[in-house]
Amino acid sequence: MTRVTVWNEYRHERQEERIREVYPQGIHAQLASFLSEAGLDTATATLDEPEHGLTEEVLNNTDVLVWWGHVAHQEVSDEIVNRVHQRVLQGMGLVVLHSGHMSKIFMKLMGTSCDLKWREAGEKERLWVMDPSHPIAEGIGEYIDLEQEEMYGAHFDVPAPESLIFVGWFEGGNVFPSGSTYRRGSGKIFYFQPGHESYPTYYNKEIQQVIINGVNWCAPAKRDYPVYGHSEALEPIREKVGV
Amino acid sequence: MTRVTVWNEYRHERQEERIREVYPQGIHAQLASFLSEAGLDTATATLDEPEHGLTEEVLNNTDVLVWWGHVAHQEVSDEIVNRVHQRVLQGMGLVVLHSGHMSKIFMKLMGTSCDLKWREAGEKERLWVMDPSHPIAEGIGEYIDLEQEEMYGAHFDVPAPESLIFVGWFEGGNVFPSGSTYRRGSGKIFYFQPGHESYPTYYNKEIQQVIINGVNWCAPAKRDYPVYGHSEALEPIREKVGV
Amino acid sequence: MTRVTVWNEYRHERQEERIREVYPQGIHAQLASFLSEAGLDTATATLDEPEHGLTEEVLNNTDVLVWWGHVAHQEVSDEIVNRVHQRVLQGMGLVVLHSGHMSKIFMKLMGTSCDLKWREAGEKERLWVMDPSHPIAEGIGEYIDLEQEEMYGAHFDVPAPESLIFVGWFEGGNVFPSGSTYRRGSGKIFYFQPGHESYPTYYNKEIQQVIINGVNWCAPAKRDYPVYGHSEALEPIREKVGV
Amino acid sequence: MTRVTVWNEYRHERQEERIREVYPQGIHAQLASFLSEAGLDTATATLDEPEHGLTEEVLNNTDVLVWWGHVAHQEVSDEIVNRVHQRVLQGMGLVVLHSGHMSKIFMKLMGTSCDLKWREAGEKERLWVMDPSHPIAEGIGEYIDLEQEEMYGAHFDVPAPESLIFVGWFEGGNVFPSGSTYRRGSGKIFYFQPGHESYPTYYNKEIQQVIINGVNWCAPAKRDYPVYGHSEALEPIREKVGV
């Protein structure tokens, strides 16, 4: 059974009444709720716990980490970021949601600024499936309609993805590469744009399905970690003349 | 005219007689020599200069940076690495040679460990062209033979490249993705494996041609840097009922 | 100087008054006009000429072929399609415009149905630049606005492109991968979606710039065609015991 | 349970004694044997059966088709090739083995010549895993050694793959992209180079594992086929002034 840890900075929900109304127990609780129902072995961790809830033990027992952060990216310690980074390279899956695009861990894995355009105007988004044969799109129709979502707009400063699964159409005239996959080391990564804290996006059944699919796609296979370093010759090497 | 800065840590050549015999003025001098002859506006910079020779002014006047480092990666200051990183994202090209695969700047751009197998056994390498339609392979036949080169072997822990241009065949039985391109932000990156300090690889005319091609391919276009951040709506947004 | 041949089926313009008003000399004449002004050595060819204007001689002297077709795809002979296909594999560039997505030559190169959604409703399109570092986007701002264009919508049944340069936002709620590049054999291919026959799209200066960029990007390098077939061993092969 | 059809032209084994000694019941029988043991619902089909054994009914009940052909590619009828092609675009997986690289179906899906270098010299091949995180490499160590295999050498004239999983090192000095994946329409494709008719390659347990993995990776998901064609607007379209 895939073991999922949902990480949330958990600040908006404690500090702002209108956000708490949307996610009374925190965004992590809502994410964990539908992931559990989908049969995943799910736990949560938040920024203000010791070691941000991401101890060596927790990470060593996590197959896929789900990440939601926004206003407190800089409060995540570099030590924990490095720890998560190592685990991803060794095969732990990572699902980065919405404003997690500027988290330290995502930026470290991408190597770019991860910047984008944005607008909070309560506008409609339609997420079009661009790659219907991808497992992350399984069970989704041609598109997902969200009555309101924060606009994230191109250009999005990330490396070219392995697969571009969704493109978001925004009422206000923008588009965005809303669902993309990457591999880094032995780890698989899925970035998914929807999920602004002030809208009930994570109650939407289709959005939930995409996140469940994303977690399943990111789950690591059971295999050995690659061997690096000095390596003996496998074939005879001829002596070179005059060397 | 493309402005190239060749950066070299310049330690082996000063500390080891047998390396100095191969590159009496340093690897950077040899690289700069054939790049200049190819009509590129070429300067050099080395680790032990102030700011490693990579001041704001130098970088602002560099179109493509060529990087050779090996034993002193950790001596490159994070501040300079961040400065180079910013310039790459803004469009400066970067050619990373041989053991530069473990340089801080390459690791930061890749987001992975950049680890590999290696062996110093004086063995033959044959670099096969895998993508003959790529500009970096222009003027090169089907392969390049190197009488002796350090073995670098798969698995190479980097993200999937934009293009895989060369694969190295090694006498001792290994293969390696020896020439690959990446784009990060507005910058283009070319990694090229040959060039161990103890072999005269950078005197080889075909290797020189590949590096010249790589510099030309990485040269930035003249264009505006993308705009990120808050963005007004371009189309009318309908008021949502009951929100 | 890059030699361009603009191919057009040239039927709408001769048969329909309202189309002729937009392109009195044919779409090919308008395309050739701005390509010539950009310094390209440009000729035209049309369906109803002998061999569709694409004789061996014409193709052997063409560096980049631009293709516009719509209602008469099936009238293009398989022999000519095979001839164009061979030339592309040998390095001739190909720019496929708008409804050319269902041309025999594009389908043969893609290996898929090349099908899509469409709607002719005079709606606005905004072409967003998704890859600002690509040469084909040079000189273009963040997006191109077209007051009216035929809607082409995802899913577009083509292989994953080498680069996705534009995504179209349509007023009616759809998105489309509007500019993509491919390489097949030694040839480079650029597909660009705008250009419905009833709208004056090819008079738009930015659209013209993209097509000029596309032709320049597709232009072949001067190099040898790869060698295939039986090949002697380059290294000694040991006799196997008991074989 | 995934339903597999193994297709073989079945000529070498009937016409040449030395090949029959290696595969007495035909290559298809040997492939079917280990695929069945792996729990796959496996059947076979051969060239000289009516409709080459690939009736509408057979294909409609096939999830993944495995293809081995060599001397008789031209005897496969275009009608059957088109039928297989349609099924792949609709989601049927396709595993193409060894000399199947020049089969009509593979060439039609790739859009290129699919040509390569070759040499039958009984030389050693070492298949290096280039992408250890890919499911097709699961259960395989760092490489697979084959005492003897036909040399297939770069350049291989196919489009850039989705993933490059294996590169073959050949004793005689060549390399080859020996395992690659593609997606075309809703179908997944895996090309795998080993398997010359005169060597006992398909008795090798690791080669068998790769082929089993490839079949499993290519198996289609249960989902709807994309909808193409005319499409009504999803958002209101404003009337344009003066049009």
UniProtKB/TrEMBL annotation, chains A, B, C, D:
It comes from the Bacteria. SUPFAM superfamilies: Class I glutamine amidotransferase-like (SSF52317). Signal peptide: none annotated. Residues 3-218 form the ThuA-like domain. This is ThuA-like domain-containing protein.
